[in-house]
Amino acid sequence: QAKQQAIEALQHSYCTSVFYEAPRRVLDTMKMMERCLPDTITIVMAKEITKTFETFISGSASKIIEWLEAEPAHQKGEFVLMVGPAEKDMSEISIEAQQLMTHLQLHLPPKKAAGIVAEHYGLKKNAIYQWSLMSLQTQ
């Protein structure tokens, strides 16, 4: 239950999360990730890090499950799971970001202002710039 809640929380995490997983649980954990996470989140599974036969598999949860089930030996060893950040919904530019962009546009070219706002709020510069153009058209 606690593990499922932690995995579900990753849908809204904007940073990479790292888990250490036991061989006997790795397949079940990956199946839980497949159920709870969208396919757009990239997962990297590292097996036997710092050892001669270290392996890295990257992709969706279903791709990693397929690899784990392909051969019983794939489920043995030490595992590290790295779950990439969720994609930010660019349609949801916060009110604060909009206000900052509106203010900066009074003093800077839109492209430069968009770069500052994007960096400050961790958004894509192009999304801010497009919002800026649309807001100018509606005025």
Could you characterize what this model shows?
By secondary structure, this protein is α+β, with helices and mostly antiparallel strands. It contains six helices and four strands, in the order H-E-H-E-E-H-E-H-H-H. It has two domains: about 1-85, Tetrapyrrole methylase, C-terminal domain (Methyltransferase, Cobalt-precorrin-4 Transmethylase, Domain 2); about 95-135. Strands 1-4-2-3 form a four-stranded antiparallel β-sheet. Strand 2 (about 45) and strand 3 (about 55-60) form a beta hairpin. Helix 1 crosses helix 2, helix 4 (about 95-105) runs antiparallel to helix 5 (about 110-120) and helix 5 crosses helix 6 (about 125-135).
Compact overview of the structure:
The chain has 139 residues and is of the alpha+beta class. The chain contains six helices and four strands, in the order H-E-H-E-E-H-E-H-H-H.
